[in-house]
Amino acid sequence: MTEKLSLYEAIGADDGLNRLVQAFYDIIEQDEDAQELHLLHRRGHGVAHSRIEQFDYLSGFLGGPQHYVQRHGHSRLREIHEHVPIGPEMRDLWLKCMTKAVAVAGIVEPTASRLMQHLTRAAEIARNQD
Question: Is 63 contained in some domain?
């Protein structure tokens, strides 16, 4: 049944997505292993801004409302992240933190694996360095 739902619906729509995004950025801010990722976010518009932008982006990316596209006119990940150096290590760190966030947000199988497949693809698209 969950395979017929969009990922947005399968994770709990706005409430589930909010839990995921908040868990992710809490990990970024608090987990010592994520310090390098936290510093990248602080150099930009800050973590508070990133929480909003990621919620809006993931909403549309996962099949929900297209908040990000409505505000910015596109959702091209590589273009969105062109100012951020993302190599394989940073991509993998982002995915590691997101895997933790999926667990903290209470997203269970088979939805968790389905979600991580989509996020892994997105993380690779955002990578802009070797």
Answer: yes
Exposure of 24 by Cβ count < 10 A (0-12 exposed, 13-18 middle, 19+ buried)? buried
pLDDT by residue (tens digit) across 82-127? 888 899 999 999 999 999 999 999 999 999 999 999 999 999 999 9
Distances (CA, A) of 72 to 67, 69, 76, 107: 9, 5, 10, 29
What total of structural domains would you count in the chain? Answer: 1
Answer whether residue 16 is part of any domain: yes
pLDDT value of residue 46: 81
Residue 2 lies in a domain: no
Q: Which domain holds residue 113?
A: 7-126
Is 1 among the domain residues?
no
Q: What pLDDT score was predicted for residue 42?
A: 80
**Structure tokens belonging to residue 71:** 């505000």
What Rg value do the Cα atoms of the chain yield, rounded?
Answer: 14
